[in-house]
Amino acid sequence: MSLRTGIIFMGACKALSARRTGIEGEVARRLAARRRATAVRRRADEGSAYALPPYARRPRQRLSLGVLLVLLTGLSATGFAAFISVSAMFGAPAHAGPVAAGDPPGAAPVSAERSAPGDTGTDSLTGNPLYASGAMTQVTCPAPELDADDPASMEDFLHELTTCLDTAWRKQFAGTGLEFDAPSRIYWYTAGQSPCGDFPTAGTAAFYCQANEGLYLGIEDIVENSAESKHPEAYTFLLSHEYAHHVQGEAGLLDRFHGVRAAEDDGSAKDRLTRRSELQANCLGGLFLGAVAESYPIGSEEHANILADAERRGDFDPSERTHGSPASGRMWTAHGMDRGDPAACNTWEAREELVD
């Protein structure tokens, strides 16, 4: 070995040693951060600033020796992505993008005569078996490490949380008589096609396509459409909302919603129904956030960030309100986190002022 080769070899060894030391230090740092995070306790109950509908005021169930059920107390202004849910069986997706008036391009609403399996008319909206499934069971789901600027980190984050969502909702559906299959995951980096249309479209960061039970999220688009937020809980809220549309689909709620909506001739009536569906997704998403609050953890700061995100993703323009006002979006998200029971997410029977 020549002197020059030896010097190069020694330099490479030192570089590898330094890299190894850096990696070990990073692992130690992340483990320490995880231990600190898991030591944080959930926030105390906060008083609700809104009047609860009668069906949501019933006493909460409490943990007993024989029952492993718990109730856990408790994302953009125009620049942020909003949610849209016109996800007919063979129609357009539920978006996390700008709200469009009426049916989105390519929408093919389900016929009013078409019923979901086990559909009993409007009862499938107001008396759905999901509402009788009881309190959400607590799920252990520590927040994955996230570097929002690193696409690989974001993809890992989304997959890990989606697995938690699969577990939580599979448990919730057990015993309801309703079948539950986890959605397919399509987390994109580049443009593509779905049965609900091409993606991405202007401002669309995420959507649920009922035609193939697909959960679609843009790895980089959700960061851009969330004002490049550094808060992991913001992306958890976005994901839990889109996943909630899948929950609605599995429960037969989406089919019936689209059937009833298709039968309406009045645009304002269609928008009112869409608001109820979208705000229900906020509430169902809140249920999951409450179910993982202990292990995630969701403390007072994370809780505040989630509600601020939900508020910013509301409809600020009253003339184009299909997802609910900022106040309603915040309220139903907080309601789901606080009450922890699907029965509290029955937006179809809520008073008009609560779903504006």
UniProtKB/TrEMBL annotation:
Alphabetical list of Pfam families matching this protein: Zn_peptidase
Protein name: Neutral zinc metallopeptidase
Keyword GTP-binding: no
Keywords, alphabetical: Membrane, Transmembrane, Transmembrane helix
Residue ranges with Low complexity bias: 98-109
Compartments it resides in: Membrane
Organism field: Streptomonospora litoralis
Superkingdom of origin: Bacteria
